[in-house]
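Progress note, sequence design subtask.
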């Protein structure tokens, strides 16, 4: 078995006619199994604060770090967790309810089986009684897991950390910034030179290229979940990493990627996974019932389907392949 990680971020910062005094301060580092890039226009010391915050959160929420709250909870099934962990767990429970389990943090037993499989995809039926978001219970800062459940917060952690970083920058009076964490991008304010933010969405068939570019002004979180980002491979067949909580196997539908746009990084992260799991038709119904976020779907045939608020933001693509999704 060969486990392959193919994470590509297509982040296009169009600085155009910026003068030197408008150039951002920048820092790049590795955390949460991805390269993180932070650019701010303002007090450069804020970069250190963001680095410290994301590094600490990465260690706190990791399933690999034996000293993290999540690893200890998985080990002991009961733990008084730190405030940040309690907040993230509460959000995970909230979005699990909101999506009727399409987002489910208790899929970790499935994930472990996929990671440890050697010659063929794992047999998972014996794990089904350990799965279900109702098995994660939080009472204040006291977290517990029932029925030998285990959790992995990877489908929400980057969005949560990005949102916390943005909140820290706001606290420090930074007015303009952009943070990228793998498939997560979050902006704060508008660029000083007046040009639009430009964030590329990867072409699932050629992930190093953009199939379209989202251009916008102001603050926004954009999170993409796609079949091309991480996958396993046996005998030349690829199995992507987005698992169906009902079966433990990779989701099978007509979607290649889902990008969620909204004002909250945590919500965007949770919903990008959940909508992929739901599939195209149910995801549209979910969006139509809420209308507090926008979505860009890339289907396996290469078509782009965008909700009414997202479609006008798309550029650098063939508009003939864009299908606009209406509110009803």
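Output:
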């Amino acid at each position: 078995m060969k486990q392959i990680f193919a994470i590509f971020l297509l982040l296009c910062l169009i600085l155009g006619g910026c003068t030197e005094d408008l150039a951002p301060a920048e820092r790049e580092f590795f955390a949460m199994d991805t390269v993180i890039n932070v650019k701010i226009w303002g007090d450069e010391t804020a970069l250190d604060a963001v680095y410290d915050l994301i590094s600490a959160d990465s260690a706190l929420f990791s399933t690999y770090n034996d000293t993290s709250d999540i690893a200890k909870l998985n080990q002991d099934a009961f733990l008084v967790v730190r405030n940040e962990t309690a907040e993230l767990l509460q959000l995970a429970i909230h979005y699990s309810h909101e999506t009727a389990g399409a987002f489910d943090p208790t899929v970790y037993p499935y994930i472990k089986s996929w990671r440890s499989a050697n010659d063929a995809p794992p047999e998972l039926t014996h794990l089904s009684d350990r799965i279900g978001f109702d098995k994660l219970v939080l009472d204040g800062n006291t977290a517990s897991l029932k029925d030998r459940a285990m959790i992995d917060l990877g489908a929400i952690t980057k969005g949560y950390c990005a949102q916390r970083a943005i909140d820290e920058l706001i606290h420090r009076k930074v007015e303009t910034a952009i943070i990228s964490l793998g498939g997560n991008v979050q902006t704060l304010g508008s660029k000083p030179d007046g040009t639009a933010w430009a964030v590329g969405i990867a072409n699932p068939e050629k992930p190093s290229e953009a199939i379209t570019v989202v251009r916008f002004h102001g603050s926004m979180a954009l999170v993409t979940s796609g079949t091309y980002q991480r996958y396993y491979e046996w005998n030349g067949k690829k199995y992507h990493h987005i698992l169906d909580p009902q079966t433990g196997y990779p989701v099978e539908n007509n979607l290649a990627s889902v990008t969620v746009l909204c004002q909250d990084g945590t919500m965007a992260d949770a919903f990008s996974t959940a909508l992929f799991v739901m599939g195209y038709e149910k995801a549209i119904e979910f969006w139509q019932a809420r209308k507090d976020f926008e979505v860009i779907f890339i289907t396996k045939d290469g078509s782009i389907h965008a909700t009414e608020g997202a479609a006008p933001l798309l550029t650098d693509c063939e508009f003939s392949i864009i299908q606009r999704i209406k509110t009803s």
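Residues 1-9, 11-21 have pLDDT under 50 and may be disordered. Work on this subtask will continue into the next period as scheduled.
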